[in-house]
Amino acid sequence: MGLRRLPAGRKTNLALLVLLGLVLLTGGLVFAIGVGWGRWVAIGHGVAGVAIVLLGPWKSAISLRGFGKRGMASWPSVALALVMVIAVVTGVMHATGLLQEAPLMRVHVGAALASIPFIVWHIIARPVRPRATDLSRRAVLRGGALLGGSVAVYGAMEGLVRATSLRGAKRRFTGSYEAASFDPRAMPVTQWLDDSVQHVDLSAWRLRVVTPRGERAITSEELLGFRDRVRAALDCTGGWFSEQEWEGVLLWRLIGDLTDVRSVGVGSVTGYGRRFPVTDARNLLLASRVGGQPLSAGHGAPIRLVAPGRRGFWWVKWVDRVEIGSTPWWWQWPFPVT
Ligand SMILES: Nc1nc2c(c(=O)[nH]1)N[C@H]1C(S)=C(S)[C@@H](COP(=O)(O)O)O[C@H]1N2
Ligand SMILES: [Mo]
User: Fold this and answer.
1) What is the pLDDT of residue 74?
2) Which atom of ligand 1 is nearest the CA belonging to 190?
3) pTM higher than 0.85
4) What are phi and psi of 236, to 5 degrees?
């Protein structure tokens, strides 16, 4: 085959490096953004993914020449190629809906994370030094052609998914598929990493509300007196979403409108928790009911947070404390670490 003779070299490698940075960044951002403009980040993620695939033949030419020189492929390059293929295949399967197994997104993210050390290895072992000519007119034109080609292929794939009514046509802007909306009993129960479903003993349970004015403990009966309602979609980064009618108490009713504090932390009996800008307290709901029924243990009884417009990992379950603080909300890991 003529692959070896394709005119490919450092610029292909540089382009791939930039694209890998882009897919990792946009992938992380899609997980972080639960509101409408996240759509553009998701599309950017897809386009960058396509561009990586389009560079495949050129990259293969480089690799083949490299093997020729070194006699064989080094195992980290093989591993990198393998995880890239897994990430691309699972990404395409999820986006088109061709395959809809639950662990698909985990495998996709797992492969992406696994690629990082190999990418770092590649940068160190096979360094590519950018040169001024990398931004020559010709290089820019080629980059433009790659971008145009990638947008075209991405658009064609989306068109095909729609034309053939593949399940992918029905995914939300985050890429998630609908699961059991307005049917809380059928809604999936899921945990972020290593938490497990809690069966909270109501007689001992209290909601501790900590503000600069002091600490309060609220019982579950007291909480049942509130009837605030919010309709919102829980959109799990595992790739599904479910819209429900939630009922409980809006957070600001418990903490008041505070101007001299920055953030409100919401914590679970398991130690899991997230911190929010205090201005969100008007929209955050501590829900004790869903779809007119008390929450099940799996969905976070006695109360769970409903955080409209935020991805599922912000929706803390089995809440037992709300804490006002001067720590800025962004002073936490972008994604929970336990
Ligand atoms: N305490 C606690 N709350 C949690 C989690 C967790 O692991 N621990 N997982 C979050 C994630 S990732 C999601 S998608 C939702 C899932 O809510 P559900 O099981 O009611 O569908 O809960 C969130 N709240
Ligand atoms: Mo999730």
Assistant:
1) 84
2) 19
3) yes
4) -75, 140
